[in-house]
Amino acid sequence: MPVVNGMDLLGEVKATFPRTEFIMITGYASVKSAVEAMHRGAVSYLTKPLTSTQIVAHAEKALERRILALENSRLIFELTSANDALQNKLSELSHLNDLLRQTQADLVRAERLAAVGEVVVSINHGINNSVAGIQAAARFLRALGGLAPDAMDAVKRVEGECREIDSILGRLRTLRDPAVVDYADGVRMIGIEQEDLN
């Protein structure tokens, strides 16, 4: 070729269109040029004279190679897409696993609060009965009259302590009442945040 030689043309074609299958045909074959042509990406290196059968066979080989390269690219694309989808699913599963752990922790806390609520009811009932008895005794002593000032102060102090115990019992009773939290779409759930006893 007068302007550019075959090796230069091969380099330009492969640089611009790297997936192009290139068949080098020469009238001046050498081992060195054959190695260079294959190194630069030629699929075949043929010497003249050629038969049409040889040309067709090498063209079919180049076409087969191109089809395999396209199939390989398609499979890599599908594998990459499947891998991305798998990564997304793994991320979703990890998120769902975190939600499940949180839900389990919330259920354990809810069960503990329910158990505390039952204990509170039982304690409340027992203390309430005792406090009611103490208050009745204090009212009886006050109604008797004629108590010494120190005794009357003691009765007043007992009544004050009973009121304080009643106040504490009132706060304990609220532990049994679940706090309701409003969520989206009108969903209402029991809140299981820790209660403040102060």
Low-confidence regions: 194-198
* Overall pLDDT score: 85
Q: What is the alpha-carbon Rg in Å?
A: 46 Å
- C-alpha end-to-end distance: 98 Å
Number of helices: 4
Biggest sheet layout: 2 strands, parallel
The fraction of residues in strands falls at 5-15%
| Number of E strands | 4
Strand order of the largest sheet: 1-2
> SSE string, helix = H, strand = E?
HEHEHHEE
Q: What's the helical proportion of residues? A: over 70%
Structure explained in plain terms:
- By secondary structure, the chain is mainly alpha-helical.
- The protein has 4 helices and 4 strands.
- It has helices at residues 6-16, 31-39, 52-144, 149-176, and strands at 22-26, 42-47, 179-182, 188-191.
- A two-stranded parallel ribbon has the order 1-2.
- Mean pLDDT is 85; it is low at 194-198.
Which structural traits does this protein have?
mainly alpha; two-stranded parallel ribbon; two-stranded antiparallel ribbon; 71% helix; rod-shaped
